[in-house]
Automatic annotation (TrEMBL):
This is Canopy FGF signaling regulator 4. Keywords: Signal. Residues 26-185 form the DUF3456 domain. The keyword Signal applies. Residues 193-224 are annotated as: Disordered. It holds the Pfam family DUF3456. It comes from Acanthochromis polyacanthus (spiny chromis). Residues 193-203, 210-224 have a biased composition (Basic and acidic residues).
Amino acid sequence: MNIYILVLLGVWSFVVANEEERLPNKCEVCKFLTVELQEALEKTGRSKEVLEVGEVLDTGKRRRKIKYNTSETRLTEAVDNICERILQYSVHAERPGSLRYAKGASQTMTTLKNLVHKGVKVDLGMPYELWDEPSVEVSDMKKQCETMLEEYEEVVEDWYFHHQDQRLENFLCENHVLKTSEQECLKEMWKGDVGKKGEAEEATREEEEAVQKEEQKAHDAGEL
């Protein structure tokens, strides 16, 4: 039988409240922009492809050959739609700071989906089909990413052609985008679920136990 749960308390109320009040800051936007761009470039960094550039003239002058992994073409292809990749992120509200943004389903959403698969009716105020749509936070981060990339396009190009011995995060975020007082999120490293995870897991366990009790009551009543 289906059991109806209105998820407006406990873990989910915490998640919703934070999603309404918390939008990505400049540090977080720069951090994940550089993460995605660095990753995109690393995928093509070992290519041995050689490009021919320039026009073939009547004089018979040959086109100039350049390595793909140091070409402007490689950078252009990496930058193209890079901010779209931000939409693959989810909000993990049980984690602190910039660690709340990561790819994959959050602990809370995974638990809620498991309840649905067990036959529990969970009401989040939206159709189940929309649960995996990008959140307000993530959509806002994408927009900020696009604005930042446009504003610092020349800085990214300078790094690509002259400063790849430095991490892009350091060169772009620390040296150009952020003030010293705005760089705190760059120090946050993933070390496993921390912060609110214990509270979230405890709340979801209690939720599941409540469901099991209701199922047992319904079963006992049916036998009577």
